[in-house]
């Protein structure tokens, strides 16, 4: 069964001087401030950006895909920790995404984990949606 998730953005003013808010409507868990400065200059501003939201989506989707793939192969993970770094270059856009994953997977060697990690990178739905962006991976067992 297909699902649809919804977020809304409201913006006032010009790009450089304006500001907005994005709400996560499907879950109802929050509304977050956004500005150009929080996107292109000061990430520690108490505001978010489209890139941070993409990083959240990608790290979560990747962790789920890797966990599923490992379990399907008979080596379910104890834990999977994924960080996604989304790079934004003003004037160019999103120039790359780097995934860093650390996992504890009993009974799996480093080569097997590397193959599973690469497979998850290629097949998670968010990776597929972002296929026009260079995605790199650093995967290791802990």
Give the SSE map.
Layout: E1 7-12, E2 19-24, E3 30-34, H1 36-40, H2 50-72, E4 79-89, E5 93-104, H3 110-123, H4 125-129, E6 135-141
Parallel strand pairs: 5-6
Antiparallel strand pairs: 1-2, 2-3, 4-5
In short:
The protein is α+β, with helices and mostly antiparallel strands and 142 residues long.
Describe this structure in words.
The protein has helices at 36-40, 50-72, 110-123, 125-129; strands at residues 7-12, 19-24, 30-34, 79-89, 93-104, 135-141. It has 142 residues and is an alpha+beta fold. A hairpin with a 3-residue loop joins strand 4 and strand 5. The strands form two sheets. Strands 1-2-3 form a three-stranded antiparallel β-sheet. The protein has a three-stranded mixed β-sheet with strand order 4-5-6. It is 33% helix and 33% strand.
Number of helical elements:
4
Q: Specify the overall morphology.
A: elongated
Which spans of ≥5 residues are poorly predicted at pLDDT below 50? none
State the major sheet. Answer: 3 strands, antiparallel
Mean pLDDT: 96
Give the termini separation. Answer: 36 Å
- For the secondary structure, the number of strands is 6
Q: Class by helix and strand content?
A: alpha+beta
- What proportion of the residues form beta strands (DSSP E)? 25-35%
Q: Give the SSE string.
A: EEEHHEEHHE
Rg from Cα: 17 Å
Strand order of the largest sheet: 1-2-3
Multimeric state: single chain
The share of residues in helices is: 25-40%
